[in-house]
Amino acid sequence: MRIVVDAMGGDFAPKVNVDGAIDALREYADMEIVLVGPQQLVEKTIGEYADQAEYEKVKGRLSIVDAQEVISTEEHPVMALRRKKNSTIVVGMDIVRSKEAEAFVSAGSTGALMAGSMFKIGRIKGIARPALAAPIPVPGRTLLLVDAGANVDCKPDWVVQFAMMGSVYMRRVMNIEDPQVGLLNIGVEEAKGNELSQQTYALMKKPQPFTFCGNIEAREALHCSCDVLATDGFAGNVLLKNTEGAISMLFKLLKEGLLSSTKGKLAALLAKDTFKTLKKSMDSTEIGGVPMLGVEGAVVKAHGNSNARAIFCAIRQAKNMIDGGVVELIREEVSRLSVSEDEA
């Protein structure tokens, strides 16, 4: 398999991107990686890799495609894609579109990545809108939130497609035989929520190629029994960021409380291993990034502040999508969806 990595995406590029790519090649013998970025800078960064002896073993599976421009997070995504033809995102996605590679990984501009996925690589036939699928690490398992921010205004049929794509991802990447799909809402009753939620619920009750388990309230999301939480991109992004903020605040308050007294410090010392295990189970670094579902390729958006380990994990996630045939199965499943009368 061949995976394209944006060498210039993220806050710590190109160092962490190059290191993460080489680490992935060392781990997976069946993988080739194309680094897209300014050739001289990327070559210089490769020369600074910590273990040159190990790099020598994998360098035959690493190539560089020159791209001198970078799309920043401050630029208008669509305008930047049109203007910067030689940017790392445009050049990298062109490689995937031409079928010279199966996946694209970037820690760069989210807006440019979403727009490029749709207009450069292209949607899977029958998919109305690609969606960001955010894996949320919760104790003992992973919850997939779809859409996590790509589409702030949605139609009911789109949310049903998000649910289907999330179910495919959990089956093929997370190896869950029958993922339970919930609909994010303000109450569990069928009649709850706004018009979008009620119409989506009605569609999800129809025979679908996924198992629907009903409405899920936000307060239950992290410890409910569902594996996929479907919603529009606005509500999904609010839930995702609120969850991240709440977890961060909880750890901060816990640390301050325990270190404020001698008894607390003793308790913290005794529970040190437990806290480490809990923190690791909720570490987003090990997830690596967010897959973009619904496009003709495995696209993974890594966090802007990714370190080398996070880039490695984002590449691993792209590999798992390829190995699991996620794109191919979404193509098959979209034709099995029950749609509204307006769409029929």
Give the count of helical stretches.
Answer: 13
Sheet with the most strands: spatial strand order: 3-2-1-4-11-10-5-6-9-7-8
Give the total of beta strands: 11
Going by helix content, strand content and strand pairing, the class is alpha/beta
How widely separated are the two ends? 38 Å
Annotated CATH homologous superfamily of the largest domain: Isopropylmalate Dehydrogenase
**Major beta sheet summary:** 11 strands, mixed
Gyration radius, in Å: 21 Å
Helix content: 40-55%
Architecture of the largest domain, CATH level 2?
Answer: 3-Layer(aba) Sandwich
Q: What ranges have pLDDT less than 50 throughout 5 or more consecutive residues? A: none
Assigned CATH class of the largest domain: Alpha Beta
CATH topology of the largest domain: Isopropylmalate Dehydrogenase
Shape, please? globular
Overall average residue pLDDT: 91
Order of helices and strands: EHEHHEHHEHEEHEHEEHHHEEHH
Tally of domains: 2
**Percent of residues in β-strands:** 15-25%
Topology at a glance:
Blueprint (H helix, E strand, L loop, with lengths): L1 E5 L8 H13 L4 E6 L1 H9 L4 H7 L3 E5 L10 H7 L4 H10 L5 E4 L3 H13 L8 E8 L2 E6 L9 H17 L7 E6 L9 H10 L6 E7 L10 E3 L2 H26 L3 H9 L1 H10 L7 E5 L4 E5 L5 H16 L2 H9 L10
Structural features, described:
The protein has helices at 15-27, 39-47, 52-58, 77-83, 88-97, 110-122, 156-172, 195-204, 233-258, 262-270, 272-281, 308-323, 326-334; strands at 2-6, 32-37, 62-66, 103-106, 131-138, 141-146, 180-185, 211-217, 228-230, 289-293, 298-302. It is of the alpha/beta class and 344 residues long. α1 (15-27) crosses α12 (308-323), α5 (88-97) packs parallel to α6 and α7 (156-172) runs antiparallel to α13 (326-334). The two termini are 38 Å apart. Strands 3-2-1-4-11-10-5-6-9-7-8 form an 11-stranded mixed beta sheet, sandwiched between helices. The protein contains 13 helices and 11 strands. The chain folds into 2 domains: 1-126 and 294-324, 3-Layer(aba) Sandwich (Isopropylmalate Dehydrogenase), CATH 3.40.718; 128-285, Isopropylmalate Dehydrogenase, CATH 3.40.718. The model has no long low-confidence stretch (mean pLDDT 91). 45% of the residues lie in helices and 17% in strands.
